[in-house]
Design brief:
The complex is a heterodimer of chains A (67) and B (422). Chain A has one domain. In chain A, 60% of the residues lie in helices and 13% in strands. Chain A has a two-stranded antiparallel sheet. In chain A, a hairpin with a 2-residue loop joins strand 1 and strand 2. In chain A, helix 1 packs antiparallel against helix 2. The longest helix of chain A has 23 residues. The relative contact order of chain A is 0.14. Chain B is of the alpha/beta class. Chain B has three domains: 117 residues, Nucleic acid-binding proteins (OB fold (Dihydrolipoamide Acetyltransferase, E2P), Beta Barrel); 155 residues, Rossmann fold (3-Layer(aba) Sandwich); 42 residues, no CATH class. Helices cover 45% and strands 21% of the residues of chain B. Chain B contains twelve helices and 13 strands. In chain B, the strands form three sheets. Chain B has a five-stranded mixed beta barrel with strand order 1-2-3-5-4. In chain B, strand 6, helix 5 and strand 7 form a beta-alpha-beta unit. In chain B, helix 5 packs parallel to helix 9 and helix 6 runs parallel beside helix 7. The longest helix of chain B has 49 residues. The chains are: A alpha+beta (67), B alpha/beta (422). Strand 1 of chain A pairs parallel with strand 7 of chain B.
Chain lengths: 67, 422
């Protein structure tokens, strides 16, 4: 999940929910999907709140933090 | 009066100073007054042609603007007294001819044209250039919406090409910080006005494109300004760099009303730099709220799923098929009970019936009891020997010994003769 894109995670999450809501998933699959849904939510949350973004200036020698 | 010559004037001063043996030091005012006295009389009653920029009509009725060509700029003022005779409203970029005098203002150390008359001279040159380039690029398909990329929904890294010290960068930074603090902002510091600025902007766009994994989107822009200030964003090379960009681009030049070539060439046009910042940053607070909703929905789903499954199991338990064996047994019980009830009823009534029959017999017997007849005075006649009851007189023969039974006993008698069959 590390390399996953936020949009992909949201898309997957929506898909899981739709499938669960259709009520047609087998029992063991339902559990699996529920767990995956929880993981995806956690991942998205982390993406949104984790590391504070930086402000970097591009210079001839690379980049420098101008926070 | 002769027009004073600037250089002879200065030379005269120094000669005097030398003569007096000490340096003559001017105050700023004195110098300015001298400049004024030289310039104003020598530069009056002039016609000047140029492009209008920064045109502003003040509420006082005075008109302030600049006249410019591609190499120089001069400030102009048209006082209300002259301005009210103006037959057109000059627009920025418009080429005009003005008539007036140069006046020097001591307080600000500035000189300007005191405009008495103003006439339009066709469309402004910059405006014309703008239209020409717009037409050319339009025909080339640079502005085609089909080739435009949409912005990714979730953006983590934003490249910004603008001046580090400009208002635009401060606005972008502030908006992104407030909405989506997780976003990294990469600034490519480029001049955004003046000669050669367009090349720095192009370099910035190319820089980010040479590291396509560094940023998700590029914002190119600057804050508000005159048409000349915004001009680098109307340069062909900037338009081409934007249209060639592999990364999605957002153009944010000036204010809402300013439309630039780069606005048309970029994938997305933002009215202002702040709006550009909004476009590239999802509001993380709203997004977290959305995730919370998802979380609840997911939980409710799993919950209702189990409730539903339980219902199904209960339904099966209660189904006819499952309940049948029990029902059959119950039915047997019912049948048995019925039989038992019927049996009981039958037996009881049968006994009753038998009793009634017996009673009838008893009654019948009672009426047939000969004793009761004898009691009323009747007698029973039997043959003395055979003891058989004689019921007809003709069976009696004369001299036959008979026994007459009565209530309290019997007497023997002998028949004399028969009196029957007369």
């Amino acid at each position: 999940m590390k390399d996953m894109k936020y949009e992909d995670a949201i898309k997957k999450l929506t898909d899981i929910m739709q499938r669960l809501e259709s009520g047609e998933t087998p029992l063991d699959k339902t559990f699996e999907m529920y767990e995956e849904g929880k993981k995806l939510i956690g991942f998205c949350r982390k993406q949104l709140t984790e590391a504070e973004g930086k402000i970097l200036k591009i210079t001839k020698d690379g980049t420098e933090d101008i926070g | 009066m002769d027009q004073p010559d600037l250089f002879s004037y200065i030379n005269e001063e120094t000669d005097n100073d030398k003569a007096s043996g000490k340096e003559r030091i001017l105050t700023v005012l004195e110098l300015t007054q001298k400049i004024k006295s030289i310039i104003e009389p020598s530069l009056s009653e002039l016609w000047v042609e140029g492009e209008v920029s920064n045109y502003k009509k003040h509420t006082s009725g005075h008109h302030y603007f600049s006249l410019k060509d591609d190499k120089a700029v001069i400030s102009c003022v048209m006082w209300r007294s002259a301005g009210y005779r103006l037959e057109f409203t000059p627009g920025n970029g418009e080429k005009v001819k003005v008539y007036g005098n140069i006046s020097v203002y001591e307080a600000s150390g500035r000189y300007q044209i005191d405009v008495k008359k103003m006439q339009p001279v066709g469309a402004g040159e910059l405006q014309m250039l703008f239209e020409k380039l717009k037409q050319k690029l339009f025909e080339e398909g640079i502005f085609d919406s089909a080739g435009k990329k949409s912005l990714p929904y979730f953006i983590k890294n934003v490249g910004v090409v603008t001046a580090e010290t400009g208002a635009a960068f401060q606005d972008i930074r502030k908006v992104i910080r407030a909405r989506a603090p997780h976003i990294n902002i990469y600034l490519y510091n480029a001049r955004v006005q003046g000669r050669g600025a367009e090349n720095e902007i192009v370099e910035g766009i190319k820089y980010f494109n040479s590291f396509p994994n560094l940023t998700d989107v590029i914002i190119v822009g600057r804050g508000g300004g005159s048409l000349e200030d915004l001009w680098p964003f109307n340069e062909e090379c900037v338009a081409r760099a934007l249209s060639e960009s592999v990364l999605p681009t957002v153009s944010a030049v000036g204010h809402e009303i300013d439309m630039s070539i780069s606005d048309l060439a970029a994938d997305v046009r933002a009215a202002t730099p702040s709006q550009a910042a909004e476009l590239v940053s999802i509001n993380s607070r709203e997004e977290i709220y959305r995730l919370k909703q998802y979380d609840e929905r997911l939980y409710n789903q799993i919950l209702s799923y189990f409730i539903y499954q339980k219902e199904i199991v209960r339904g099966i338990e209660n189904s006819y098929a499952f309940k049948r064996p029990a029902d059959i047994i119950k039915n047997y019980h019912l049948v048995l009970d019925n039989i038992e009830d019927n049996l009981n009823y039958y037996c009881v009534s049968r006994i009753g019936n038998e009793k009634n029959r017996l009673d009838n017999f008893v009654n019948m017997l009672r009426t047939l009891d000969p004793g009761s007849v004898i009691n009323r005075g009747y007698a029973v006649i039997r043959d003395k020997n055979s003891k058989r009851i004689i019921t007809a007189s003709k069976t009696i023969k004369a001299g036959q010994k008979l026994e007459v039974g009565m209530k309290d006993g019997s007497v023997d008698v002998t028949a004399d003769q028969s009196t029957s069959d007369p």
